[in-house]
């Protein structure tokens, strides 16, 4: 494998939350108690009524908001980066997602933990999946979500982010934001007195990776000890995989063209935790051998479309096609965070193949996010 110098195999040891871990991000501009139902009688879902302990590790770094607005004292938690939490908490949130998903799938509609609550959804970047999954999920659990599009706030231009955070905190119980500059989500969390959920920034996309992890657990049966090979640009999706690999042990490989590697400091910090085997390589054919998941994303993300033609040239050889999936082996699933440019980073045949789980993956955005919001609100 033609790996770079940062490719290494690190032993699995206990996770340690490094306070320096977020420095690169900024530069990228249930205690046991039963679920409560509103209906007269509880539904027979014993596993769902089992609440999971979601206490963060004492060594975890506090959200930057806690020193400003005291939300930590109110029991609220932001969800900005996966590695803000320890392994037990992340796995507990994923367990909660499975339980609430089963409840929703059963047709049960009396579990309404968000009843009487509102959420503002700030979209500097438009998105079908993020909007529909958050809005639908919050509604199914009894809440009301308010969409604020790119022209509704113009956060940082028409009104300062710190003012937006403090005003919306007086109207709403929770804020979700999908923005460009990572500093915007950090500033929102710093000044908001309610939980802030990172719906995507140019640096990371934690809700997507939580949905991906849930999908892997459902289809493979586990997350720990698996091998995930991402083929394409070392973007915000890769950064979130790296942050997950910093707390849960698995083998993660990013196969990308030279010059399109993920943020070097994020790679280094993830490796220094000693939790997972992490590799950065420029040889996708070698990388995918024996993997459990082949993962792809668009080569030119929103805000990079002017580079699309250039990237198509540079990324030749990094398309996930039937030949690459054959090299991966019959056990390998294909995943993509969508939207996909069929015929560019992935062929139509791969997306439509029996081992493609992109649509269960997309559905799980809603279920993972429901569990994240329940955790953030202490419900």
UniProtKB/TrEMBL annotation:
Record keywords, A-Z: Amino-acid biosynthesis, Arginine biosynthesis, Chloroplast, Plastid, Transferase, Transit peptide
**EC number(s) per entry:** 2.1.3.3
| Localization (cell) | Plastid, Chloroplast
One GO BP annotation of this record? citrulline biosynthetic process
Q: Name one GO cellular component term.
A: chloroplast
Residues covered by the Aspartate/ornithine carbamoyltransferase carbamoyl-P binding domain:
77-218
Which intervals hold domain Aspartate/ornithine carbamoyltransferase Asp/Orn-binding?
A: 224-375
Q: Does the keyword Plastid apply?
A: yes
- Spell out the InterPro entries in the cross-references: Asp/Orn_carbamoyltranf_P-bd, Asp/Orn_carbamoylTrfase, Asp/Orn_carbamoylTrfase_sf, Asp_carbamoyltransf_Asp/Orn-bd, Orn/put_carbamltrans, OTCase_ArgI
The UniProt GO MF terms for this protein read: amino acid binding; ornithine carbamoyltransferase activity
**Record's Pfam families?**
OTCace, OTCace_N
Catalysed reaction, written as an equation: carbamoyl phosphate + L-ornithine = L-citrulline + phosphate + H(+)
The broad enzyme category this protein falls into is transferase
PANTHER family in the record: ORNITHINE CARBAMOYLTRANSFERASE, MITOCHONDRIAL, ORNITHINE TRANSCARBAMYLASE, MITOCHONDRIAL
Q: Record's family? A: Belongs to the aspartate/ornithine carbamoyltransferase superfamily. OTCase family.
Q: Which HAMAP family match?
A: OTCase (MF_01109)
| NCBIfam families on file | orni_carb_tr (TIGR00658), PRK00779.1 (NF001986)
Instruction: List the protein's name.
Output: ornithine carbamoyltransferase
Organism annotation: Oldenlandia corymbosa var. corymbosa
